[in-house]
Amino acid sequence: MDIKPGFPFWLVKNGILADFPKLTRNLEQEEVVIIGSGISGALAAHELCSAGFKCTILDKRMLTSGTTWASTGQMSYEIDPTMLQLSQQYNEAFAVGVYDASLQALYDLKRAFQQAAINPGVESKSSLYLASDKKGLKEIDAEYKLRTKHGFPVSYLDGRKLESEYGLQRRAALHHGHAAQMDTYRAAVGLILHHVIRQNLTVYTRTAVTSMEVSANKVVLVTEEGFRIKARYVVCAPGNEAGMFLPKKVMSLYSTFALVTQPVPADLLWKDQCLIWETCRPYFYIRVAQDNRLMMGGEDMKFRKSKGMKDTLVARKAKSILSQCRKLFPRIPVKPEFSWFGVIGETKDGLPYIGQFPGMKNVYFALGHGGNGTTFSMIAAQLIRNQICGKMDYRKKLFAFNR
């Protein structure tokens, strides 16, 4: 699946950080095979290698060149479905469990990077969740009450405070200091190289897995070129292409669009350079990237394959995103320099699917779908590690296929 017309900022900024050869032989006794070298696969490899497993990563493309290249690297304990929405769909205890897991994942991500001695530009940030309209104002009021009831870090900013402190003309917003931003591409490659150097991880790129045979005590993968890989465990982390390994459809595909501007004057940036997003769906979001460039995105739409229209579509969506930025910050002169789109998978409830699909023994899925992929990927890596090791984990029921 081609997901990157245009110029993703991270590829231009970093260049190709690493790459590996394709598989050219059968593999007979692999302990853990991970399909996918994006941030989900990289974190899974980190957790499993750190727990003493020997792992092998297979990727059909160049290293980490799927959706991770297209990530804008924003992270927050807030996720796309609000706590209120999850409480209404499931119950309050379920919603609290999901938000607890997301909050902890932020700290665990930083710890993982420290363990691997890598620096993917992680910066702690605060976050503003803006009410887009009257409906959004009601949602924010109810969300604030529910989060404070359960002790989550959040404060309420009314319209006057938003204008005086941030120069924003919106009715209200939720604010908290538990967010971060980073270079997701550099993070994934750094984790992989850390374990390759320690010789507990082997990587093959340009190696497409076309079929999977599951039995009681092993899993056999077959590649596009006919090579067979026998593994004790398989972790499926191929992002939006996971559907080929599942017996039924569990997600819908959406195109999401992003752009990075030319550098802007530092004195025109908003307070704390916090992450900003909003209640309407699809939502607009914005953050400050390297060199005082603005990174922003949104305009999600149902994914459809179309030849010859990708660049036109990216340009049209970038123009709309830029217009939203100018409405929010009319004083900041913005000119786009890089624009691209990526494809994300979304489930009906906005939560990822993690763990075993019923009937598929020794196969574990790390599907961090939606707009919170990196924190979900951290949860998936830990949860799968615990499941393989036979350890109890309260998060299993939150993200299971049969929840």
TrEMBL record:
GO terms for cellular component: cytoplasm. InterPro entries: FAD-dep_OxRdtase, FAD/NAD-bd_sf. SUPFAM superfamilies: FAD/NAD(P)-binding domain (SSF51905). Residues 32-384 form the FAD dependent oxidoreductase domain. Transmembrane segments: none annotated. Pfam families: DAO. PANTHER family: PUTATIBE OXIDOREDUCTASE, SARCOSINE DEHYDROGENASE-RELATED. This is FAD-binding oxidoreductase. It comes from Adhaeribacter soli. The lineage of its organism: Bacteria, Pseudomonadati, Bacteroidota, Cytophagia, Cytophagales.
